Amino acid sequence: MKKFLLLVMLAFVLSLQSNAQFFSIPGWDYNWDQKAHEKGQIHFSYGYGQPRLDKKLFDYQKDSTDFRVVGIGPFFWKAELGLSRKLSVQLSATYILYKADWTRQRYDSYKAMDLPFKYGTKLHDISANLRLNYHLYVDKEWDIYIGGGAGYNYFSNSDFTTYAPDDTLFKSQFKLPFPVSYEMSFGIRYYFLTRTAIYLEAGMGKSLAQAGFVFKFRHRKRG
């Protein structure tokens, strides 16, 4: 019985030692987390921006009755790689859904009178930019940076109306813009957890301001 208890205690001690080694943080991992930005780090971000800057795309119909532009977005998705302690390269993607509509008086044969009918267009705005960020100040919790870049902008629109005779004939006269996207912004990240941050950016692009979350990873062991 004593031998059995001794074996159980020995197994328990070995188990604790093994678990301690398993849950311990390697030195290189600890050092890697000392900065909010560092060479070799990978950051994934997602966010939302306001106010949208592309409502001017629909100016052709702006003098129409009850004209309005509504939508959702821009939504932002970003992937960033640290090139050095000061520089990083980032792929930034955005999506916006716009809807512009207005009313026109059309003759309704069923009621034998002019009635207001809705006309409009929906626009999908998708862009992808390659940008560089320069990190002005970095410590364990804060990352202050500026950046800018350019890329491709894809637009797709579809017209609609509630007036049946014009359903297949109506054209909104919406002209797709040149397929080039750009952005330039000043940003701040605050890591409230070791590898999770909130960010805020302000500048020119799809919106004047944006905010969201950042998740930090490493792609290799540092020497």
Radius of gyration: 27 Å
CA-based shape: elongated
End-to-end Cα distance? 50 Å
Helix-strand pattern: HHEEEEEEEE
Description:
With 223 residues, the protein is mostly beta strands. It has one domain: Porin (Beta Barrel), CATH 2.40.160.20. Helices cover 13% and strands 60% of the residues. The protein contains two helices and eight strands. The chain has an eight-stranded antiparallel barrel with strand order 1-2-3-4-5-6-7-8. It is elongated, with a radius of gyration of 27 Å. The two termini are 50 Å apart. Mean pLDDT is 83; it is low at 10-25.
List the helices and strands and how they pair.
Elements: H1 2-23, H2 27-32, E1 41-52, E2 65-82, E3 87-108, E4 113-138, E5 142-161, E6 180-193, E7 196-204, E8 207-218
Antiparallel strand pairs: 1-2, 1-8, 2-3, 3-4, 4-5, 5-6, 6-7, 7-8
Descriptive terms for the model:
single chain; 223 residues; 8-stranded antiparallel barrel; 2 helices; 8 strands
Brief synopsis:
The protein has 223 residues and is mostly beta strands. 13% of the residues lie in helices and 60% in strands. It has an eight-stranded antiparallel β-barrel.
